[in-house]
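In response to the reviewer comment on reproducibility (Comment 2.3), we provide here a single inverse folding case reported in full, input and output, so that an independent group could reproduce the run without further information from us. The structure tokens appear first.
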């Protein structure tokens, strides 16, 4: 099976397409590999592809003029992102960084726009995706401004269990405390204490490099 077929078979949006649309979609798909710590793109770059995470973990973040860093979201296996920039044909307004060795699937803008203009199923998927993404970004502002570090860790972790944004993640995720710290914008020591507390409350089980979540909805509302 070719890489194009593998990507198409894995993608959640593929189930929304007709066979003819699927053939058009798979034709333009490519894969790129990014080592840990590398930039997929910088803020202001033009990345003319819709992007999916096949394997690995990336963060979407930005640094303000004052030097303050803010992470908007983490993307795990099965996540697709960047549809807003592709639709508007504009430079990216954020950095995308691989925080572990990562394989990305890329769909060129020409293919994306053809599906957008011709596929009802693809548009249904995009509406769901954009709605979830809007909620995620609004929530990220709340996390940064009013939540304490423990709640910030809980809620950032909860996004990995959103079935629309991270469809390949079920009840557990392979993620280190260092990686979760990068996404939550806190130190690894803070993540360690937060996970211990959340485990004592029966919301999850934290093991080396792996977190099993029992109550993702409780994590998504956590504010204590």
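Designed residues, in position order:
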């Amino acid at each position: 099976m070719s890489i194009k077929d593998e990507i198409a078979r894995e993608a959640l949006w593929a189930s929304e397409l007709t066979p003819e649309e699927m053939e058009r979609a798979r034709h333009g798909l490519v894969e790129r590999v990014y080592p840990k710590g590398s930039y997929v793109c910088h803020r202001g770059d033009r990345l003319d592809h819709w992007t999916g995470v096949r394997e690995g973990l990336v963060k979407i973040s930005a640094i303000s003029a004052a030097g303050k860093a803010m992470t908007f979201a983490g993307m795990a296996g099965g996540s697709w992102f960047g549809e807003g920039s592709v639709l508007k044909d504009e430079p990216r307004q954020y950095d995308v960084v691989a925080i572990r060795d990562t394989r990305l699937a890329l769909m060129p803008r020409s293919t994306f726009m053809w599906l957008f203009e011709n596929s009802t199923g693809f548009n249904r998927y995009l509406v769901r995706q954009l709605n979830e993404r809007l909620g995620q970004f609004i929530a990220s502002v709340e996390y940064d401004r009013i939540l304490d570090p423990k709640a910030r860790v809980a809620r950032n972790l909860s996004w990995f269990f959103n079935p629309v944004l991270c469809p390949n993640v079920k009840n557990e995720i392979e993620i280190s405390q260092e990686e979760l710290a990068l996404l939550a914008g806190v130190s690894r020591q803070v993540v360690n204490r937060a996970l211990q507390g959340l485990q004592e409350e029966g919301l999850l089980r934290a093991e080396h490099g792996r977190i099993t979540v029992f109550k993702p909805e409780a994590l998504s509302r956590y504010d204590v």
